[in-house]
Design brief:
The chain has helices at 10-17, 40-55, 84-94, 131-141, 168-172, 176-185, and strands spanning 2-6, 24-26, 62-73, 76-78, 98-109, 115-126, 160-165. The protein is α/β, with parallel strands linked by helices and 193 residues long. Helix 1 (10-17) links the parallel strand 1 (2-6) and strand 2. The protein is elongated and about 50 Å long.
Length: 193
């Protein structure tokens, strides 16, 4: 059985590689625009499923992983900033605040069309940050393709006072603890193969 990661994220690929399972990647061309009145949790589940289904289009005997992540601050969704100015704006808004990162995960089985989904939330409390610290961080790490404008696996860890959640990998974009359980239920255990 083939394992496919429906993502172009190098961060998700690096995380999945930790499980030492052979896998391939595909680009899951999916419109990520939120629907009207869609909650952050509903959004990431819908997008994770759409990405997994898109990655499964040309596969017949595969498990396909889809994942998506957004940050929620005061009920507002923060996505990938895309530009340094928007990254600085996001970090200014997050300074000294708590934010919830919602990571949607889907494992789609092409053999029978079944799928497993989950949302893994991570609460992050940011340190109070000065304009200079924010500018220095964005200039040094360029977190333009990361929801919330930081990379917790790198220098971004210096932005936090506290992290809370069931899986630290979820903050990077792929909840490996939950994924291991899903893979086992689908017949592809990570250990004891």
């Amino acid at each position: 059985m083939e394992l496919i990661l429906a993502s172009t994220s190098r961060y998700r690929a690096q995380l999945l590689a930790r499980l030492e399972l052979p896998f391939s990647t595909v680009a899951p061309a999916v419109d990520e625009t939120p629907m009207a009145d869609e909650s952050p949790g509903d959004l990431v589940i819908r997008l994770a499923l759409l990405k997994a289904q898109a990655g499964a289009r040309n596969a017949t005997d595969a498990l396909v992983i889809g994942s998506d992540q957004v940050a929620e601050l005061d009920g507002r969704i923060l996505g990938k900033p895309g530009t340094p100015d928007r990254a600085r704006d996001q970090l200014n808004a997050l300074s000294g605040r708590e934010v919830v990162f919602h990571t949607g995960l889907c494992l789609f089985d092409t053999r029978d069309g079944s799928h497993q989904t989950a949302v893994v939330d991570t609460l992050v409390r940011f340190r109070p940050l000065s304009e200079r610290q924010i500018r220095d961080y964005v200039d040094r790490e360029q977190p333009l393709d990361c929801a919330g404008a930081f990379k917790s696996e790198g220098l971004g860890i210096a932005l936090f006072e506290h992290l809370g959640g069931e899986d630290p990998n979820a903050l990077i974009g792929l909840p490996l603890i939950r994924l291991c359980s899903m893979l086992e239920r689908a017949g592809l255990p990570v250990l004891g193969r």
